[in-house]
């Protein structure tokens, strides 16, 4: 095929140059490639942690493209066709989108481009195996993780895509919008590869034993670079295979966590309404608390003032860092839905508002997993005990004391139960907003009643 003059590479959740099939396609089909990112107001919240992190990643990508990246602000349905006309681009190359909003947006952009005789070309996916590709023998999607995981392994995946030896960025004077200044932070493809290499050489060894310990902070934190596509999961999987040659339990455990990410994306692909509605109808009539008292308790949860130290530590870290250990995400979600009897989307929205790695599929289906309305891995009757969870996964109370300074005078595991010590509340830590044992019984009563209706 004879290359046309210019193609556009529209970056979205793929802010990197390595292992980027859409980039390869753009280079193959045009003499020059214009890299573009559209700041879509529908997806941005001014000052939010995710927006700040995105802008930092775009700053890095601008350097990686040697200043060629063009930033435009507005609705992509208007921005992309207009830009294609400006530079006479015959094709706009993208990584295939998988979220409900992204799929609807791309359909509209493709239609608008087609009116001008131009084409939206989707190549690759943000996942090792694209959502919708793994089906059971009857041709239906999997609704349970373990069978999906086995099928995922059988399916196989392509090797990481090579980086073009030369990328002919378009150097024409194409006006763009300036990027807002953001605080310096670790972001971009180079930082992601550096972090991954450090974890692979050091942190991976104990991952299967220590990944549930927030006090040790031994997770890879690669959920953030994966969120922005600064590294592709294929790259991670290839490195794991080369590093462990299939002999490492820690590597196998890490791969399983990546498959959970792929599973939730697959569930959302097949059931887009599950982003904000119960996947399973059995608990559709489950009663939730509302009103002024419920609002007060939700505020206490959001601010880390529930009186349960491990819950409060996690929620305070979320507000401070825009991140929370996965074990604590489950504990905090269980507390909101099953101790405070609050509808899970309330918590899911709060997490998305504050998590730097906030991903619709993983976040919201993780909440449904805990609430018992989603995939079946968590039985509806499972209720996390915040004290037991704290003692088990923060055995010396180090994580709690790090984030709850009111309890730093309590040594060891005593930080998890200030109510058992005469001086437990000397520094102003709040009393428990509910009694866990009472609320657990209430939850089980409500869940059983809902299932019988």
Layout of secondary structure:
Blueprint: E1 4-11, H1 21-28, E2 30-39, H2 49-64, E3 70-73, H3 76-87, E4 89-94, H4 100-115, E5 119-122, H5 145-155, H6 189-201, H7 207-210, H8 223-228, H9 233-244, H10 249-270, H11 292-303, H12 309-321, H13 326-339, H14 344-354, H15 360-371, H16 386-393, H17 398-403, H18 436-452
Parallel strand pairs: 1-2, 1-4, 2-3, 4-5
Helix pairs in contact: 3-4, 5-10, 10-15, 12-13, 13-15, 14-15
Kindly describe this structure.
Helix content is 47%, strand content 7%. It has 453 residues and is an alpha/beta fold. It folds into 3 domains: 121 residues, Rossmann fold (3-Layer(aba) Sandwich); 82 residues, Serine Threonine Protein Phosphatase 5, Tetratricopeptide repeat (Alpha Horseshoe); 172 residues, DNA Cyclobutane Dipyrimidine Photolyase, subunit A, domain 3 (Orthogonal Bundle), CATH 1.10.579. It has a 5-stranded parallel β-sheet, sandwiched between helices. The model has no long low-confidence stretch (mean pLDDT 94).
**How many distinct helices?**
18
Distance between the termini: 62 Å
Annotated CATH homologous superfamily of the largest domain: DNA Cyclobutane Dipyrimidine Photolyase, subunit A, domain 3
Low-confidence blocks of residues: none
How confident is the prediction overall: mean pLDDT?
Answer: 94
